[in-house]
Design goal:
alpha+beta, 16 strands, single chain, binds guanosine-5'-triphosphate, Rev_trsase/Diguanyl_cyclase, five-stranded antiparallel sheet, Beta-Lactamase, transferase, Alpha-Beta Plaits, GAF-like_dom_sf, 44% helix
């Protein structure tokens, strides 16, 4: 068999899927093959005569000029990667294979579009970062800024809003809102809310761009006019269904989000929804472990933690703290006479009223059936504890539940640091004993 020699005809290079470029020593395009239009968005005749560096993404310009210097110094570079700005402003990642031709005084390079590969790598990295952030972030509010940073590795998003459905009050909460503008008007904030509500209600993504909003219903295009020119909202869908919505937005002159970005963010937002759900579950479990289920008050464990912290501060700063040990008198008879459910309601009401007698820095914990402990923190003076005890007694004097006027008397024992004990155990025991003495006194007096 004879092998036919083949001489490429002129223009053959335009058949290549990769782009071939030739630039002079100043970095000006002398030749660009047909594939350039697909890769860079510019026709070859638009590229010739322009400076290569002007098309490079700003963050890659320094590296690119350095690589060009090395190539012109004789180093062939078969695997240099950088990012270019396409004619429509979007980014394209290129793998270059380039060399210097000394006789022609030109650089010859082949550009292979690796945007898809880069995107897949970035998504993989983002998913890993999201699952890592779930472990490192202390709580949901710490997780959101992490998520914002991770999204920014995938697409420009100066603004991010996260809306979560709150089953307790059957409405959307907005626990994270970085609007991306210098300041935000009340109308713009309301528009963000309305758009997120729409996305979470429909369960469908919503892509708003500078143009095309006239096709939207009136109220939606009015809201769209208030937010950033590029706005992409996605439902947060977990195993439970739609748990809220996420919206990314961009104010800058960068290109608007594309359908491809929407697809990418739909995929990523599913992972974000799972991450949020895991964090919510974590904090629910933590809350359950630290709080009493009936009254919602901190439990004994939390009380011990706070008491030890307060004691450490008090020792350092040479100041006092007080404990009030509260036990309801004859609470059993309320259960017996009116039923356990009424007893529960009474306990909840007592908890609410005790809380109402305290300052923000103080703690009230439920430590037993009808037993509560108050820790008076902050600048606690002699006599403060007595005044608070009086207030609590007065508050609990008449409680109305289901048309019943219940009379409940709390016995309250007080312990003051450092007079009545050096540590948590001694102070609690002292306050408990004082409470029993009060109870006995009350009984003996009746
Ligand atoms: N409704 C209701 N009752 C509870 C709960 N936890 C404990 N109790 C009841 O609260 C009562 C507390 O008992 P005690 O403190 O010994 O009884 P008391 O009648 O208050 O007696 P004194 O304190 O001596 O006046 C018991 O009858 C428990 O069954 C609860 O969560 N809900």
């Amino acid at each position: 068999m004879t092998i036919r020699a083949f001489t490429p005809p002129p223009g053959f290079v335009d058949l290549l899927l990769d782009a071939v470029c030739v630039v002079d020593s100043d970095g000006r395009f002398l030749f660009a093959s047909a594939a350039c239009e697909r890769i860079f968005g510019y026709r070859p005749d638009e590229m010739v005569g322009t400076l290569m560096i002007d098309m490079v993404a700003p963050e890659d310009r320094g590296r690119t000029l350095e690589a060009a210097r090395q190539i012109m110094g004789g180093d062939a570079k078969p695997g240099f990667e950088n990012c270019y700005l396409r004619k429509d402003g979007s980014r394209v990642h290129i793998l270059w294979s380039a060399r210097w031709s000394a006789p022609d005084q030109v650089r010859i390079a082949v550009a292979h579009d690796i945007t898809e590969r880069k995107r897949a790598e970035a998504v993989q990295k983002a998913l890993y970062a999201i699952s890592e952030a779930v472990h490192t972030a202390g709580d949901l509010s710490a997780l959101f800024p992490h998520i914002h940073r991770i999204i920014n590795t995938l697409l420009p998003a100066t603004g991010l809003t996260i809306a979560l459905f709150d089953p307790a009050c059957q409405q959307l909460d907005f626990p994270y809102h970085a609007h991306g503008a210098d300041d935000e008007s009340a109308r713009a904030a309301a528009a963000h809310h309305a758009l997120c509500e729409y996305v979470s209600k429909t369960g469908e993504p919503l892509l708003l761009r500078r143009t095309g909003t006239e096709r939207l219903p009136d109220w939606l295009s009015d809201a769209a006019a208030q937010v950033a020119p590029c706005w992409l909202g996605l439902p947060l869908v977990s195993g439970k269904g739609v748990i809220g919505a996420l919206a990314v937005m961009e104010m800058a002159d960068s290109p608007c989000y594309s359908e491809r970005d929407q697809e990418l963010m739909q995929f990523v937002s599913a992972q974000i929804a799972t991450a949020i759900e895991r964090k919510q579950l974590d904090s629910e479990l933590r809350h359950m472990a630290q709080h009493d289920a009936l009254t919602g008050l901190p439990n004994r464990t939390v009380l011990h933690d706070r008491l030890n912290t307060s004691l450490a501060h008090a020792r350092r700063n040479n100041r006092g703290i007080s404990l009030l040990y509260i036990d309801l008198d004859r609470f059993k008879s309320i259960n017996d006479l009116h039923g356990h459910e009424t007893g529960d309601k009474l306990l909840k009401e007592v908890a609410r009223r005790i809380n109402g007698c305290l300052r923000d820095a103080d703690t009230v914990a439920r430590v037993g059936g009808d037993e509560f402990v108050v820790l008076l923190d902050g600048d606690c003076e002699q006599g403060d504890a007595e005044r608070v005890a009086e207030k609590i007694r007065a508050e609990c004097a008449g409680i109305r539940i289901r048309d019943l006027d219940l009379v409940i008397t709390p016995s309250i024992g007080i312990a003051v640091y450092p007079d009545n004990g050096e540590n948590a155990q001694q102070l609690l025991r002292y306050a408990d004993d004082a409470m029993y003495r009060m109870k006995k006194k009350g009984r003996d007096g009746r």
